[in-house]
Amino acid sequence: MPRVKRGVMHAKKRRRILKSTKSYKWGRKKLIKQAITAAHKAGVHAWRDRKIKKRTARGLWQIRLNAGLREHNLTYAKFIKLIKDRNIGLDRKILATLAKDNPKIFNAIIEQIKNNLAGS
């Protein structure tokens, strides 16, 4: 069986890891063992923090939506129930964006829901 030399792939793997840890401090940017650990932990933190970012954004949408609804004597919880009952397909992100950026359209949506409420 012929001999297989793998030095090229080993060097390529080292280069890739060291490139990803380029701006890190101390030995984490130049020592391979520390760089591997640092790169792995960075990936774990990045994955976790993307989830936290989504969680934080949803909380912000709820706050914006509730602030816009308070002007119309509605609470967030009641409004969400009305939206669900009427099968309106707008999610919290869109509604919060409308409340913040396009209050006229948001007011029209609320009036439509209130009219449906009065008519029921």
TrEMBL record:
Keywords: Ribonucleoprotein, Ribosomal protein, RNA-binding, rRNA-binding. It comes from the Bacteria. GO terms for biological process: ribosomal large subunit assembly; translation. InterPro entries: Ribosomal_bL20, Ribosomal_protein_bL20_C. Pfam families: Ribosomal_L20. GO terms for cellular component: ribonucleoprotein complex; ribosome. Belongs to the bacterial ribosomal protein bL20 family. Binds directly to 23S ribosomal RNA and is necessary for the in vitro assembly process of the 50S ribosomal subunit. It is not involved in the protein synthesizing functions of that subunit. HAMAP family: Ribosomal_bL20. PANTHER family: 39S RIBOSOMAL PROTEIN L20. This is Large ribosomal subunit protein bL20. It comes from Candidatus Kuenenbacteria bacterium CG08_land_8_20_14_0_20_37_23.
